[in-house]
Amino acid sequence: MEARRAACRSGVLLLLLLAAILAAAASASSIGDKCAACKAVAAELEIGISSEKPRNHLDLRNRLNSKGQREGKVIDYRVSELRVVELLDDLCDKMQDYTLQKLESGEKGWVKVEDWNSFKTEKKAAARAHSKNLSTFCGRLLEDTEDELAEWIKSSSAESGNVSRALCEDISKHCLSTSATTEIDDEL
Known about the structure:
Elements: H1 2-28, H2 34-50, E1 58-59, E2 63-64, E3 70-71, E4 74-75, H3 81-88, H4 91-94, E5 98-102, E6 108-112, H5 121-154, H6 163-171, H7 178-187
Antiparallel strand pairs: 1-4, 2-3, 5-6
Helix pairs in contact: 2-5, 2-6, 3-5
């Protein structure tokens, strides 16, 4: 009798594990248009870059030499790791404010939700699921592109206006550039 219960428990655990694996796989592939999702992440990052306040250089001179003068480096905030961390730190959490909606053009697109209470109860759950999927996509996107994106942010080209192109075309390759397609066509 005890062996039967143990076998039943292990069978139930195996089914739960299989269900968790299938749910993770479904969530990972639930973003159909990775280009549009990447552009939504880039738009939120661009908001962060454009709303940055001017910051002083980071003074890392914390040691005194034999003459009593401070030694160390002074780092420009715009090229610092601190700037990268502050821009990317809660970016994926902010993506939970977005959902997939039908646009006026008839296509679906990612839009920022101002008021979640404006959704009907049955549609709110689906909208929340889309927002969580986008947040998960954002996490994977940043994980896959972290080093290149950090270098891009620290470079002088990290200005608002070209974030989408840099992140979605140049770094992650989720969107094919029309200029790159044109160049390939011209070579043929």
